[in-house]
Automatic annotation (TrEMBL):
It comes from Variovorax rhizosphaerae. GO terms for molecular function: lyase activity. This is Aldolase/citrate lyase family protein. Gene3D superfamilies: Phosphoenolpyruvate-binding domains. InterPro entries: Aldolase/citrate-lyase_domain, HpcH-HpaI_aldolase, Pyrv/PenolPyrv_kinase-like_dom, Pyrv_kinase-like_dom_sf. Belongs to the HpcH/HpaI aldolase family. SUPFAM superfamilies: Phosphoenolpyruvate/pyruvate domain. Keywords: Lyase, Metal-binding. Residues 20-239 form the HpcH/HpaI aldolase/citrate lyase domain.
Length: 265
């Protein structure tokens, strides 16, 4: 089966730099993949991507060594199983708040005897390899999102579920749950305390901790703290930021006509 480079990177003690795809387009996904991200996450929860758009995006990512990850809309067996059947090498499931929910997540993403995933890896066989069924349970990465006050109360119970590989923090939702501002990087003290606690408990349980970030500086600071999966912005935000930078420069340096009729800045 194809190597899951996330597991290889984490085993060596490294951190994965993850990009985020909210635009439902295979060319933009291919362009992002060719920039050298360790992994790219297709967002089916808050992006405008649906299952039919996801398939060509996964195919586009497959033109590189970038690991394809999908955030599913919810803890739903159909979404999780179809996403894995389509060739995702990792799944991120939002709003996991109890041990029972974490157990369901693990069950839906693992074949028997570890779980209840139905067999039908129609594209995963092409991408993952002919022996996919033999190695999928040990290769696929399962993330539980920790982003509610209830999840904080049940943190150790969630993280002790066998078969869970990693947790992923949504700073905005976690902040809202704690009565704080919904931001990625410069979070309020109460939210920061919760983030630090989640990271500490993840380390204690031998799980990888991931988190969403708005900028590279925030992501680098969190890697220094021990996070091994850091998302930086998204394709839509990066496109908007790049456009703003170009326009700001153009408008700050107006065109001046020369005597030859040409223009300079």
């Amino acid at each position: 089966m194809r190597e899951n480079r996330l597991r290889t990177l984490w085993k060596s003690g490294g951190a994965a730099i993850n990009g985020w795809l909210a635009i439902p387009n295979s060319f933009s996904a291919e362009t992002m993949a060719h920039q050298g991200w360790d992994s790219l996450t297709i967002d089916l929860q808050h992006g405008v991507v649906d299952y039919q758009a996801m398939i060509p995006m996964l195919q586009a990512i497959s033109t590189t060594n970038t690991v394809p990850v999908v955030r599913v809309p919810w803890l739903d067996p159909s979404s999780l199983m179809k996403t894995l059947d389509a060739g995702a090498m990792a799944v991120i499931c939002p709003m996991i708040s109890t041990r029972e929910e974490a157990q369901k997540l693990v069950a839906y993403t693992h074949y028997a005897p570890r779980g209840t995933r139905s067999f039908g890896p129609i594209r995963a066989l092409l991408y993952g390899g002919a022996d996919y069924a033999t190695h999928a349970n040990d290769t696929i990465v399962t993330f539980a999102m920790i982003e509610t006050a209830q999840a904080l109360d049940n943190l150790d119970a969630i993280m002790s579920v066998e078969g869970l590989d990693a947790v992923y923090i949504g700073p905005s939702d976690l902040s809202l749950a704690l009565g704080c501002r919904p931001v990625f990087d410069d979070v309020d003290p109460k939210a920061q305390e919760a983030i630090d606690h989640i990271l500490e408990r993840a380390k204690a349980h031998g799980l990888v901790a991931g988190i969403h970030n708005g900028n590279p500086e925030g992501a680098m600071a969190r890697i220094a703290k021990g996070f091994q999966f850091v998302t930086v912005s998204s394709d839509a935000r990066l496109m908007a930021a790049g456009s703003q930078a170009v326009l700001s420069k153009m408008r700050a340096e107006p065109v001046v006509a020369t005597s030859s009729g040409s223009s300079t800045y």
